Amino acid sequence: MGFLNPWFLGGLVAVGLPIWLHLLKRHKTDPTPFPSLMFFEHREQSSVQHRRLDYILLFILRTLMLVLLALLFASPFIRKLTPKGAGKKLVVVAVDRSFSMRTKEGTSTRLDDAKAEAMNVLSKLPPGQPAQVVALADTLQAMTQQTSDPGELRGAVMAIKESDERASFGELARYLRTLSESTKTPLDVHLISDLQKSAMPAFTDVRLNQDTDITFHQVGKVQPNWAVETMIAPQHVYDPKRVHISATVTGFSAPAATRTVTLLMNGKTIQSKTVNVPENGRGSVEFAGLDQASYGFNRCEIRIDSADSLPADDQYMFSVERTDPKKVLFLDDGRHPEAQEFFRAALNATPDSAFQLEPLRPDVAANSDLSKYAVVVLNDLGSLQSGLEASLQKYVSNGGSLFEAIGPASAVAFPRVPVLDEPIDGTSYASREGERFFSVSDLDSGHDVMKSVERFDGVKIYLATNVGSTKSTVLARMSNGKPLVLERKVGEGKVLVFTSDFGAANNDLPRHYAWVPFVQKSIAYLGGAGSGEQPANLSVGEYVELRTGSEKGAQAEVQDPDGQRVLSLQDAAQARNFELTREGFYEVRTAGGKRSLIAAHANRKESDLAVIPPETLDLWKATGSSGPANGSGQGTGGEGNTTPWPLSPYILLLLLGVALAESVIADRYLRPQAQPQETKAA
Amino acid sequence: MLQRFLDPSVLAGISGLDLVAKTVVDGFISGLHRSPDFGFSQEFAEYRAYNPGDDLRHVDWNVFARSEKMFLKRYRGETNCQVSVLLDASRSMKYGSRGMEKMEYAKFLAASICYLAHLQRDAAGLIVFDSEVRQFVPPSTRQGQIMRLLHGIDQAQTGAETVLEKPFAHLVDYLRRRGVVVAISDFWEQPETVIKTVGPLRSRGNELILFHVLDPHEIQPKLRGSVLMEDLETGVKMEVSPDYAHHDYKGKMTAHLEDMKSRAAGANIDYFLVDTSRPLDEALRQYLAIRAGRL
What ipTM goes with this model? Predict the structure, then answer.
């Protein structure tokens, strides 16, 4: 017997109410004086009536009513055992084809053993028994519809192929719940898998419906396994000599061992190192330099000599793109000689910077081609030749990016901020008699530029230009409410304005720790590096973005590891993303025309071959049926199916009967005696 | 204004039975100035100077013609009647639901009748009884009789059960002149028994008035739930349900009162039901009406 809503049994405490009324709350026995009772009829006293049968019956009935009411809300049910096979049922054979099923067991793989076991299960089905074969990985693939044809079922099993996806028993349970609700038929499920612990989601996700009986068929056993678990490498290489690549080798259920780790690039061995992996632990190795990296995309791989039964996880593929750093033009009229050094130091703070600073005087730059620069930086120029201003305007309109520092010299020279086209209204000067300095009080921390600047904590600004913000977006404001950082899109390009200079005379930002992330994030944001770029190393099952909303109609292209185009014409024109279904290198060209080499590798959770404990399997099995769980977590299911039989209708009928009886008894109890008795002698 | 003083609840706040009786009777008489029955058995007593507001009917116009001054003629009642008040002091008279017991109301009524009789120069007497005669003040017109009567009424205490036979037999022994007998009681007896007991008095030529004093809750009990009731006289306890009290009891009580009224009328006895929630003047009016018929 069980309860669908057992918490309603808490209502049984209401039984205390009649107990209090009948037993604890004594009736008042103080008599009320009255001149004469000659017209009243005789009745017995309350103290006597407390012990009368009516009273006891009333008490019992009222208590019973409350108990039945609580039971009714708790929705009790009992399970009725029905002989197995007596009713209609559907057999579901689920075969695990996840990455771990590639593990070798002797001469065959686990998938081969699983398919053999599936054939065995199908051979035991009675003739005419409907069944369905499904292949389990990250997603569930129905290999057949519900059919009674043994040949079709066996053919479906043979057609199951190994995959690089990870297993998800939650996906299987979700499918079984849906199938049970749609077919209204009891399910007899046979899960044939290596029952990896890592495939088990939260227990609530694997809950089965009541009429689902699951039987576990484990293939394979726990074996030691070494794998390249993680790898860290830059996506872009600008200076091959400064590149560092690190990898982690992990032993799952494995003894301590020494493994040789090899770095390969474009099929050639670059470096080899040995690493000591402790028992059930991890070992790290680092490679320095990628001198042989050629310009463009390079197919790299970390490989170990594990000699274990799952060689597929002994390699970890990744791609790197070698390219020249982007040029950043720094225009300075020599007014702040230290500014250039501050800016360069911040830009080159990372070992392999994506940007290269190129300083130039404004008068020289007027005759230069600005289109070859990713970003142009103006540092508090006191004058701007008309030719240069027109070039900058054209450069930004065509998609270029401008980073302006509007210091006191610019405040005097220009009535409006060049290109940004916002008015300049003098300067804000923190005098010694006044505030002494301004701080940053308001900041848009969600913006890419402002994410790592720690709110400019401790930065002191002594002199800043008052720039209007009628067209621009203010990313940071000073404590006096004036904008400190503004941004505006002009044509296809972007303009970022800092309302002080990049020297240390009018603010101490270059001497502050927020300076480096501010410069790097600003240049990366303006130069298009890093932001919005999707990673090149992904796990199987993850998606690659092919287009954004504004690129409708343009063709995208994906070539799988075999060099085959995988997108249909319709998908190439419409698909927003593409799922990586196997390990290897995918050549991708997005609808926007950007090319990339994506390296896909199997999820390393599949490398852990630890098995789900039997008690967990018993609990999982128990969610689908009330029968005693198989101790080993494996077997052929129970002797029959149990179906819940609700008791609520019967309790409701009983409750109505009790309520009726209570009304009758209560009416009789409260009604005076039929025989009148004169109490006063005539 | 004075009518307010006839309200029992107001009278209960006045200390001194004589003051209560005077308040009731004076207020009552003032309210009777338009009554056609007023002025019976009167003889001239004195003149009084006219004051504005006095009834012009009492002006002696002969004197006015002679002296051009207005005087009122005042009269003195003729004493030719003996009034005996029988006051029930049984335990059932102790009941009261409105803050005033029936006994208290009955005392006011008895005192008022005695005071009225005193003003009328009637010889008033008093018998206080329950199962026995507890007090007896013979009817008399002597000086100080009214104070003796009021004192006797004031001293009356509720005692035992009501037994009408003994006091009425005692009264027969003392009534040598025919007159008016006023019995004030709750008459918790069968009507047949009551009439059978008091009937002989009527046969002697007495005018017999029965004031049936009852509390409103005796006529219609108001119960919120089942209660255990105790008979004030016998001590018997009984569980009473509100449903019974609201229906069955009311019917029986109505039948009882009707029976009392019809049997009294059949025996030529004046019967008057006095509700303790109502002012005293109705009872006094009844008394005066009978007193007038007696003369």
Answer: 0.74
